[in-house]
């Protein structure tokens, strides 16, 4: 059957394959609320500017609300033949209110319509990500506060490096998620301009009021160039890019939780709520939620690359390629919100094993740097020489299968004659972390100061 929108131009309807490749209603129905909101703003503006009559605008506005409630009640007759959400809504509006429905599309195109709908949707997702990140940072700060002075190994190359505190490690993620949050805020502010009224690409001859529709839709202002307004999807790319960076942070934390919850580390105990057992191995408690966060993050990175790839070769202005912006962005947003919620839940129900952390903190000569620093501070050795002396002491301890504090003063003096008994004060892991008082360092005082700053920020 002829498509009702192009009936005059196309005698026969598209065949089934064309319909399958062309239709987007299967996914863009998700934009129904934004589409109806945009259309209501447009109709009100058309009446305010005298382009259509008040009574037509009123019929359109009311009819659109009827359509909205039909969709929300789940009894809307979506039709693939009508291609997308815009034409589905408009066709149904025609059935509901008759002739005035045909006036809604005055001074508008599906090109500015879809750009508007999608922007409104992505803007909502920025808000959701910001809210999700706030909750996650709160969970991170709560963990940090509980163990602000619990010592644990700090790693480089996943090899013991220097002792740090649990609070310090948790607050590292608070910083990362805090930057993620601000990236979504920045992206939101930049995308908050209205494409509506750009029409197909060139603007329109009707005396429309773009400021009015921009304001009605909560945009700061109309976009200043109609070609740009209908042809860029940088707002979605920015959302996806911010999502990708956040996803990588989530994935790294997930990876640490997988490692830490292993029997070999036992740094943390996951709640039963966030783990699963094995059908064959009775002892198992697998960190499935963390693993799935780590894995699902790939979808977000993939969606980002996919949309960049869609956009990279497109001449101005609209091309149908851009219809492929939605599924990727929908999936990435869903995945991000799920991963944020799962990580927040997992972290909130996580128990850090203080004793295991502390025992592990001293393994692997983790205070060797403290010993070298003592030699510099107390004996005036150049750091490079102190490094060498310490290296010899580490080799001695390693040869005997003991830790640095297990060496005797005589052992120490056999390597450097001026070493004194008080060197042993700096070999303990608590002393080590307490000494790292530089701004942003792991000393519990410093960590508590950062916790306080974040709590104030989140309040
Ligand atoms: N479904 C289309 C999309 O998502 C709407 C815009 C169609 N515009 C057009 N000129 N065919 O991009």
From TrEMBL:
EC code: 4.3.2.1
Region forming the signal peptide: none
This protein's pathway: Amino-acid biosynthesis; L-arginine biosynthesis; L-arginine from L-ornithine and carbamoyl phosphate: step 3/3
InterPro entries reported in the protein's UniProt record: Arg_succ_lyase_C, Argininosuccinate_lyase, Fumarase/histidase_N, Fumarate_lyase_CS, Fumarate_lyase_fam, Fumarate_lyase_N, L-Aspartase-like
Keyword Cytoplasm: yes
Every Fumarate lyase N-terminal domain range: 8-302
Reaction catalyzed: 2-(N(omega)-L-arginino)succinate = fumarate + L-arginine
One CC-aspect GO term: cytosol
Pfam families recorded: ASL_C2, Lyase_1
Keywords: Amino-acid biosynthesis, Arginine biosynthesis, Cytoplasm, Lyase
Domain spans labelled Argininosuccinate lyase C-terminal: 365-434
PROSITE patterns documented for this protein: FUMARATE_LYASES
Gene Ontology BP term (one): L-arginine biosynthetic process via ornithine
Family annotation (PANTHER family): ARGININOSUCCINATE LYASE
Entry's family note: Belongs to the lyase 1 family. Argininosuccinate lyase subfamily.
HAMAP family: Arg_succ_lyase
Protein name as it appears in the record: Argininosuccinate lyase
Native source organism of the sequence: Paracoccus gahaiensis
